[in-house]
Specification:
single chain, mainly alpha, globular
């Protein structure tokens, strides 16, 4: 097996092996060190909590996944588009980019409260919060990536009669793809954080709701079970972006 399939399998192995090692360390460490369950239950106890209520965790997983994917996709698309616009239009960048930087100083908890008041407690509000956390990294990395395109290559394309759009499509955007995917990998995690935080404002479903319920009821295994399922969702989201990067930015994959 050579080329791209081998690289994809290698990437999958790189993602799975650390998870298995962490699981073994968790279970073995708790048992060998006799860690009290009130602090850290064993992995077996956490998995038992999940299998005891599979429907509740599956429903929460799907609900949070939907919010995360909508917010991430919207934040990624709009963020990349805004980054390209800022790179190509200096006046627009000077007018709006400072305002965007200031907007990122607002704590997500405060912003989330406003969004829930505006959009209610449905999926839309959680997706907006996920969008908020995904959008800015996508803008910044796209802007940096597009501006980093080789000036000599730009001049060469223009010497052959290429216009601004052609230079952007054939040189600047492909050159920016590695930077864009760095932002998307970060955004995959941040969008999940935004969805979970949004569910703390009174949602009736989702992993954030399970976290709060377990915490208020002092159900330590349930709390760790919600954390575990959230971690699985985060790994899957990030892994999907990494897989997309290996397919799109294939020239950077080690053979």
């Amino acid at each position: 097996m050579t080329g791209r399939p081998r690289a994809l399998l290698r990437g999958l192995a790189q993602g799975v092996l650390p998870v298995l090692a962490l699981a073994a360390l968790w279970q073995g460490g708790v048992v060998l060190l006799h860690v009290p369950p009130a602090y850290l239950p064993s992995l077996g106890a956490v998995l038992g909590q999940i299998t005891a209520q599979p429907g509740a965790y599956a429903s929460a997983f799907g609900h949070t996944l939907l919010e995360t994917v909508i917010g991430f996709a919207a934040g990624g698309v709009v963020g990349v588009g805004a980054g390209v616009a800022f790179a190509e239009l200096r006046l627009l960048r000077e007018l709006l980019f400072p305002l965007m930087v200031v907007s990122q100083t607002i704590p997500v908890i405060a912003f989330g409260a406003i969004v829930v008041l505006w959009f209610g407690n449905g999926v839309a509000a959680k997706a907006v919060i996920a969008f908020y956390l995904t959008f800015f990294p996508a803008v910044v990395n796209t802007l940096i990536g597009v501006q980093a395109a080789d000036p000599a290559q730009r001049a060469l394309l223009r010497s052959f009669g290429a216009g601004r759009w052609q230079v952007l499509r054939k040189l600047a955007l492909p050159a920016a793809l590695p930077q864009i995917f760095v932002a998307l990998r970060l955004g995959a995690s941040l969008s999940l954080v935004g969805a979970v935080v949004g569910e703390w404002f009174g949602d009736t479903n989702g992993l954030g709701t399970l976290l709060l319920s377990a915490m208020f009821n002092e159900q330590v295994p349930g709390l760790w079970a919600a954390i575990f399922v959230s971690a699985v969702l985060g790994v899957l989201c990030t892994g999907a972006v990494v897989l997309a990067e290996r397919l799109v930015v294939f020239w950077r994959v080690e053979m």
